[in-house]
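Entry:
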Amino acid sequence: MKKHIVFGGFDYAVRWEMDQDAVYTGIDYFVDNNPQLIGTTYLGKAIYGPEKLLEEDRENILILIGSIIYHTEIEFQLQDMGFEEDIHYKWAIGFCGDETCPRLWKHTEWKDRQGNAANLQMTESGEYPLERLRITSRLIDFEKTDVIVDFCAANERVRAFLPEDMQYIPVDYIPYSKDTIVCDLHKKEFPTLDIPSERTCALLIASVQYVSDWKWLLQKIAQTCDTFICAHHDFVRINREYRRTQFTNYNAIFNHQIILEMQKLGFVMTAACDSHLKDVIMKFERR
């Protein structure tokens, strides 16, 4: 059975942000660089120095980086010890749980009507999402585009900014309209699209954070289009109180990670703009 180990985070996250029940039931032990913590316990779990990780079977551990502020330093430390991202370790706040360890951050499901009615109303009728779509449409070269595939399209408000003769394909987890292709991207459901990637533009507006395996999603989208426009609010913009009490995301990623992943997939970022100091809208085109 795979061991789950939290590395770092006692500066704040472990004690104040993580679900203590999930820590108690799902974590085997802790690792930390602070000599004052090493040799003590938390919730009955031992706290060791990082060298403890070298004693483990690498195929049967998952190291969850607990620190929010110092996650990069810990990641470099793990790399120097020979551990690989997404194989041996990942950021704990983006861990959605597995068969033996629950997710560590308290989570408010997007589908929870009571908890997210305001979010849904804002997406479907708010002024800011509409303005964000208006900005997005300015990045689309309609002279070079025949098809728009809108992932997480909601009620398809972007249509107002598209040419009337543009082929538009909305995708979402529930059928907002008769045209919606229903796929739950979080569950790795992806539509079969009978269209060429040439002259196709894919949109993913403020939604990449709701998919646990975001790299899988970008890989699938890259196969469908030669232009990709993604809007994302960088993780750093989410304040601590919001993370602790209302975290609806299934991952925690920065804009630079999206850019680097798209480069690996053969795309280059050709335009980007800010949207009301909340989101960065990035346009990628196939090399």
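The first strand starts at residue 3 and ends at 7.
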